[in-house]
Amino acid sequence: MPAHLTHYLVMLPLLAWIIWRRLSRQFGRQPIRRKRMIARIAVFVILGGLLALGGLRQPVLAEGLFGGALTGGMLGLLGLRLTRFEVDPVKGDCYVPNPWFGALLTALLLGRLAWRMLVLWPSLQGAPGSAPPPSGLSYASSPLTMLVIGLLVGYYIAYFSGLLIHHRRFQQAQRSVTAV
Known about the structure:
Elements lengths: L5 H19 L5 E2 L2 H21 L4 H23 L2 E5 L3 E5 L2 H27 L17 H37 L1
Antiparallel strand pairs: 1-3, 2-3
Helix pairs in contact: 2-3, 2-5, 3-5, 4-5
């Protein structure tokens, strides 16, 4: 195996583990962890902001990102409406996410990244007749890829923000019930 491909031996199992963790959180009862959700919202806002800065050079990429973020935000609100909220005696306030939204968005992202990798692979290998490898962040050099990334960013910002708002309301309702 060529030396420049050995880092894939490390990265692919790590990526598979991250995807497995992500998909496993789309099914079943999940406890509301406020600090983790706030941290995730912050990470997605920073990621979206950094990617939007890249759109200063190529406005079509920013358009894809913003269009995806708006659509993702609407999907996040719809996903929130389809989420069931429960109280577990051990875990406390929990939510049961609609598994279709998270799994669909994950599959869409993985499919798009796999397609981009398939398109870019010959140029990365230096195959005869292929274009030279692109410079910079080659995965994010397509408006469609930025749209899919924007979908994820918008969805999770809206979804986790909605979960935090619900949790705050739940806590206030619990306080008023115990006070009566």
